[in-house]
Amino acid sequence: MIDTGLKDRVVLITGANHGIGGATALEFAGQGAKVFVTYFRRPLEPEFKDSPEEEPGVIHYRIQQTKTADEVMRKIEKRGGAADVWETDLSDPTNIPKLFDRAERSLGPVEIVVNNAAYGEADTFEPEFRLSEEDSHAADFHLFNITAETHDSHFAVNSRGTALMMAEFARRHIKRGSGWGRIINISADGASGFPCEVSYDASKHAMESYSRAVARELGKYGITVNVISPGAVQTGYIPAELQKMLEDDYPLRRIGEPKDIADVVVFMASEQARWITGQLLYVGGGNSMSL
Questions:
Q1: Is-above-0.85 flag for pTM?
Q2: Does 200 participate in catalysis according to the annotation?
Q3: DSSP character string of 215-264
């Protein structure tokens, strides 16, 4: 049996009320870590409020985003794990030190940070973009031209929020003289540039740049910093037809589940990854392999 060295380590996970963040919280708890969960619920668009949520797709995913972390907390507590939670908006910089204060008061000094929270909204540079009549997801698809608001909403959370989370973690880590720390940031496999999600992926690309800089600067303090770039993961947003198309294209012939990413996050935090830092790891069933 491999000892990950994570028992009683304090981990702070953002965006952990469902999906990858929620699965990651459960996996850390399973390793005996103390887990502080944070999340933020965007108000549901009025046109979605009476929509059925059974079928995966944009509507289903937006409904998942409006849920609390109560279910995640119940599962952790059922396993006998130590955990706490606070809902907060990371686009407000003043909430970040408050978040660390709460985690420390509840569980102890934070030793691992998983930056998973993300703001995502489809936007484009193409002024005359139109969905084809054959697109069966047209009713679920909201696409806007890029504006100052769509740009800033993405960068406030995905780039600035992550950068300030890392800075706050580093300040506290260095002040208390700790020699062990982990930062794992969740990116996207379209971060180098992706049509129709231009602000989301650009903000993730900026986050990747910050991560490499932090890894270089903070390595001398015993902090490793790595980025995980997931392929398509079924967190509720992928319609059945699109899932089948992706599965036919992926080398491993399936899309991901949240646990697929969570397991790699735990590895990056573990003692087995102690000499890995500044790396970007694609975790997507081979979809981003270099040939």
A1: yes
A2: yes
A3: HHHHGGGTEEEEEEEE--B-SS-S-HHHHHHHHHHSTTSS-B-HHHHHHH
